[in-house]
Amino acid sequence: MKISVNRHLFIWFFSLYFAYFLNIPFWHQILDIIKLSSVADLAYLLSASIILPSIFAILFYLFIFPYFGKFIIFLMTFIAVFSTYHMHYFKVEINADMIRNVLHTDFHEAFDLLNVSFFLWFSTLVLLPFLSLYFCKIHYHAHFLKEIKSRLISILLCISLIGCAFGISYKNIIVIHRNHRNLTGLVTPLNCFYSLGKYIRKQHLIKKTITPIAEDASRGALWKTVSKKTLLIIVVGEAARSDHFSLNGYLRETNPLLKTKNVISLKEVFSCDTSTAAALPGIFSKLSQRDYSPEKAAEEENLLDVLQRVGFLVYWKDNNSSSKGVASRVREENVRDLNQNDDILLKGLDEYVKSLKEDTVLILHQLGSHGPSYYKRYPSEFNIFTPTCNSSEIQSCQKDHLINTYDNTILYTDYILTKIIEVLEKNPQLNTVMMYISDHGQSLGEYGLYLHGTPYVVAPKEQIHIPWIIWLSDNFAKEFHVNKEHLLKSITTRKCAHENFFHSVLGLLNIDTEEYKKDMDIFGK
Q1: Disulfide: which of 47, 152, 351, 383 matches 169 by Cβ 3.0-4.6 Å?
Q2: Which residues contact 351 (CB under 8 A, 6 or more apart)?
Q3: Each residue of 304-329: pLDDT tens digit?
Q4: Distance set, CA 104 to CA 144, 276, 315, 399, 514 (Å)
Q5: Residues of the chain with pLDDT under 50
Q6: Per-residue exposure over 107-139, b if at least 16 CB sit within 10 Å of its own CB, e if not
Q7: What is the reported pLDDT for 436?
Q8: Which residues of 152-183 are buried (b: 16+ CB within 10 A; e: fewer)?
Q9: Cβ-count burial of 212 within 10 angstroms (0-12 exposed, 13-18 middle, 19+ buried)?
Q10: Which residues pair with 3 in a beta bridge?
């Protein structure tokens, strides 16, 4: 049975519901700021309580019309519930970068985010509005012009309400919003639509044609005396923190195998961004940190194009969501299955390496320490640090349990990298190198933050401090004139970033081009 409801009552019901129930992070932040310790604080709270529903009412008066009004409410409710859950529990900030992350999220990643807490949150907040949408029949004015007139009057009344509310506490409003500019960015789902608009605008500005780089690239003088085929394996890590690698001083032994392999581990390395979609292209881009953006990187070729141009076979093998466009012009294969561990990247590797007949760059993109389901990222035999957080509801786990689980993912990465090195050691007919670098770090509850994706300018060190590990065979060191002992002493504490990777690989492989900058090359030969 449908209940006939006047459109004014319908609009104000949902305006109040959106303002008070679907904006929990907004009100939580306000109460943290004002503390309710004075009359001025109470006046500000009253003003905000009038202004926010009035803004929603204006929007609904503008967009809620017959035939598609309920769908708009349904869509906005769904987006608001989904975004507020992640804002509340994981302290996620909704911006254009986060929209990019969401649009690049695949089924496997989305599935990991579904848990009991989310379903409880979702069912609690959507039950009332969905029942209202189903059982209510909105009564509109029969005459279109009269309907428009009624809405215009209602909008003017809302604007008057906003003006009166602003007058109650205008000084406090100005001061608070000047000092806490993120407040307006907490209003859902308006923040989602605004950020989506910014993202679309950025994408629209990207050039449709790819600008070539390093067209003058060629192999340098050292290649004249190289007698063996060369293989560089680049392992791109996921959400790995430098400070959880025992190679870099972490007190817990998370790298028991790598420490036996004479690797070089750089201790002060920083990512160019805090999410895979934004940071992964930055690893292979020639752009400096100052000039970098994912949009700029998408407009031009990258390191893989240069290596392919000078005759390397380039092959990207992915156990993550994708290469984010980095490998779009080289051979690319995605081998990920639901909850697949990274040992899939080792499958057939020995045979592949043995069969190589040409100089090759192989990129292995890990699932690594991808959250929040850290406990799914490693086989049971790597469940060494216990007790663990066997849930994707990481905000509900004890801090030490969460860290144990995350450290097990690092222990498993230690195993994967060691197995790759052992494959290379068994193939002395090649000049071989392995490089491991992570896309970004990860928050594990520090400052109330979880996962990653915090805007770079305010991102904590945990989300940008990453590992960069290098292993070189004796063959490679000899033929490319690399002094491993000198490297071990000279670069392990050098501060560097993703912006150094492009130049360092070119320098290590003795590729000559005007794009190469020696001062950005960590090897500095």
Answers
A1: 47
A2: none
A3: 999 999 999 999 999 998 899 999 99
A4: 42, 9, 21, 29, 34
A5: none
A6: ebbeebbebeebeebeeebbeebeebbeebebe
A7: 98
A8: eebbeebeebbeebeeebeebbeebeeeeeee
A9: exposed
A10: 136
Partners of 270 in the β-ladder: 465, 497
In the prediction, which pLDDT does 400 show?
A: 97
- Per the CB < 8 A criterion, the answer to whether 202 and 99 are in contact is no
Q: Report pLDDT digits (tens) over 413-452.
A: 999 999 999 999 999 999 999 999 999 999 999 998 999 9
Q: Is the dihedral of CA 504, 98, 119, 319 positive or negative?
A: negative
Q: Which residue has the tokens 């689980």?
A: 405
| Three-state SS annotation for 34-101 | HCCCCHHHHHHHHHHHHHHHHHHHHHHHHHCCCCCHHHHHHHHHHHHHHHHHHHHHHCCCCCHHHHHH
Taking alpha carbons only, the member of 125, 153, 454, 62 closest to residue 279 is 454
Angle of helix 170-179 versus helix 144-168 axis, rounded to 10: 90
Q: Could you tell me if 326 and 302 are in contact, meaning their C-beta atoms sit under 8 angstroms apart?
A: yes
Strands 465-472 vs 264-270: parallel, antiparallel or unpaired: antiparallel
| Amino acid code (one letter) for 60 | F
**Using one digit for the tens of pLDDT, what is the confidence trace for 240-266?**
999 999 999 999 999 999 999 999 999
Q: Which two tokens stand for residue 511?
A: 């590729």
Q: Which residue has the tokens 């294969």?
A: 333
Query: Of all helices (H) and strands (E), which one includes residue 436?
Result: strand 430-438
Give CA–CA dist 454/441, Å, rounded.
Answer: 11
Helix or strand holding residue 334 (H, E): strand 331-334
Query: In the numeric block, which tokens belong to residue 144?
Result: 């279109």
Map tokens 């050292």 to a residue.
Answer: 222
* Residue recorded with tokens 């992640």: 86
Task: Note whether 375 and 390 are within 8 A (CB).
Answer: yes
Distance between CA atoms of residues 318 and 306, nearest Å: 20
Q: Which of 189, 148, 162, 159 is nearest to 62 (CA)?
A: 148
Q: Looking up tokens 């790819």, which residue turns up?
A: 210
Cα 10 from Cα 65, distance rounded (Å): 12
Gyration radius from the chain CA atoms:
27
Query: Which residue type does 11 have?
Result: I
Structure token digits, residue 418: 């060691």
What token pair was written down for 442? 């990860």
Q: Are 256 and 303 in contact (CB under 8 A)?
A: no
Alpha helices in 239-388 (DSSP H): 276-284, 294-298, 303-309, 349-354
Tokens linked to 235: 């392992």
For the chain, the straight-line distance linking the first and the last C-alpha, in angstroms and rounded, comes to 79
Q: How far apart are CA 67 and CA 77, in angstroms?
A: 17
DSSP-derived pairing of the beta strands 430-438 and 465-472? antiparallel
